[in-house]
Amino acid sequence: RFETDAGLDVAPLSEAFGAPVTETSAGHYQIDVEPSPAAISQLTSWLGDAGLVARSIDAGTRSLEELMLELGSSAGDDDE
């Protein structure tokens, strides 16, 4: 789940994820995918390319900070 501008055309985002995206309430969206660092990265990149900012991201039991730390440590593993 994430929050950004209300009225987002969800069709392109749904196509990018290959999964349904719904606006659950004004400016609040849900993507039907398993939470992962890759999904968070894909979402923030997609929103950035669209000129939008994620005001909040809820990826389940882990916080965004925990996911970003995991993503950062995974990226460091590629450098070895």
Give a verbal description of the structure.
The chain is 45% helix and 16% strand. The protein contains three helices and four strands. A four-stranded antiparallel sheet has the order 2-3-1-4. Helix 2 (37-49) crosses helix 3 (64-78). The model has no long low-confidence stretch (mean pLDDT 86).
Alpha-carbon distance between the two ends: 33 Å
Low-confidence stretches: none
Task: State mean pLDDT (0 to 100 scale).
Answer: 86
Shape label: globular
Order of helices and strands: EHEEHEH
Describe the largest sheet: 4 strands, antiparallel
Instruction: Provide the β-strand percentage band.
Output: 15-25%
Strand order of the largest sheet: 2-3-1-4
Number of continuous helical runs: 3
Cα-based radius of gyration, to the nearest Å? 13 Å
Question: How many strands in all?
Answer: 4
Protein structure class: alpha+beta
The percentage helix is 40-55%
Protein topology:
Blueprint: E1 2-3, H1 10-17, E2 21-25, E3 28-31, H2 37-49, E4 56-57, H3 64-78
Antiparallel strand pairs: 1-3, 1-4, 2-3
Helix pairs in contact: 2-3
Summarize the structure.
The protein has helices spanning 10-17, 37-49, 64-78; strands at 2-3, 21-25, 28-31, 56-57.
Top keywords for this entry?
80 residues, alpha+beta, four-stranded antiparallel beta sheet, 16% strand
